[in-house]
């Protein structure tokens, strides 16, 4: 498949690109700062790199035209604006996807995005509360991302892949479930995140769902 990857210059996004290439997909990387990509990606004949902002409808349209799916590793940074820029970007991306017949969207989220299948967990409640208090703008944007995808993506086959604390361990194993189900834990390797997204793209087991994934 031909895939558009957003958020590809961050550590999780780079893993996602690498996993997509390892699975024989072709990749379009749309990035504000493509110079952050390693040569192993930019030199690949299976990769097209496009530079642009998440607010640029014309540039995003060029990136989305002709792809089979949009995969996103977009997430808020340490010093995040208060005007929910990522949620606004998803709104624009979804509109363009609809216009060009691209139906599959797999996007990174966190446990700050609630799901009806979640149960109470002291650990996750503490994690989410900490983000809400100490990174309020990031929290608001993540929640708005979930709301935007669910409300505007009724015609799409979307999956919100909610992640806990990410690390750089190399493990590929992943557990998928919901908060408080007795299976999910609080850490996940970025490699496993990428493995899950490419696996979900190919298997389509979590359509219009928001699983929480973690390392075993």
UniProtKB/TrEMBL annotation:
Residues 7-202 form the NAD(P)-binding domain. Belongs to the avfA family. Coiled coil: none annotated. This is NAD(P)-binding domain-containing protein. One of its GO terms (molecular function) is oxidoreductase activity, acting on the CH-NH group of donors, NAD or NADP as acceptor. InterPro entries: NAD(P)-bd_dom, NAD(P)-bd_dom_sf, Polyketide_Oxido-like.
